[in-house]
What does this fold into?
Amino acid sequence: MQYINVGRSGLKVSQLCLGAMSYGAPTSRAWILTEEEGRPIIRRALELGINFFDTANMYSDGESERVPGRALRDYARRDEVVVATKAFYPMGEGPNQRGLSRKHLLDAIDASLERLGMDYVDVYQVHRWDDETPLEETLETLNDIVRSGKARYIGASSMYAWQFQKALMTSERHGWARYISMQNHYNLVYREEEREMLPLCRAEGIGILPWSPLARGFLTRPRGAEATTRVGSDAFAHELYYTESDYQVVDAVARVAHDRGVPQAQVALSWLLQQPGVTSPIIGATRMAHLEQAVEVVGLELSPAECASLEAAYQPHRVLGHA
It folds into this structure.
């Protein structure tokens, strides 16, 4: 495993991050593993050198914080791992149990820490942009959370580049804690972030943590392959991908993988790791083999010709993943 700074911050993370959305309550999604099924994968990730773990309060209604929290307490020292979680989406029926208001964020960080069984998180992230809360209120509250010691750093997830730039400028103007990372939607079949967000992150020294780096499994299987449990039950994926040009990208991934003698997932991850500014893609492993294959990609270099062949079929998409 190799380690890299998150943007211009001093925080060092493994070049792959294990996402915990896959571990929690199978009743919420058919492909989610139980705690007993997920713990061995978390333990193996640690053995393979992954020190970065990402989750969110809304995954499995909080269970995806409890499961990795218990596993990391059992298998690692707290100062050896980097734990990130997120807040924004509803965590109850009340009007103040969602969004990025001061009330909700202060309640949410305490609830997340209780579920994780930790005194602090390393990166506390806003899960989306909130049009209903003044930006200054959100950023001052996040600054207070950092100053209180409940979070070491703050980060953000999918939004428009102008929104992210406005947040960075506002924090800088007030001398508040500044976002160090952007967790955004980026992979071989969704590259719209290359237009504005990625150049902004590189210019501002922001670490890029792509979510859905394998397009929710779409990039890992050749055209016409039998549907997995996740593919068959993941309606959200079908809102994002599965156009003909997307399939042409998958065909190109399959060709490079065949020529290399490696799984398609390794080709797609290798391409992503070679993109300027990318820090640590967030992978979701539901099988031990998926995790071990992903770790093998660190250090795998694709040639310029291979990268060009993977990129050639791409067609522009409407903005996806900000909602």
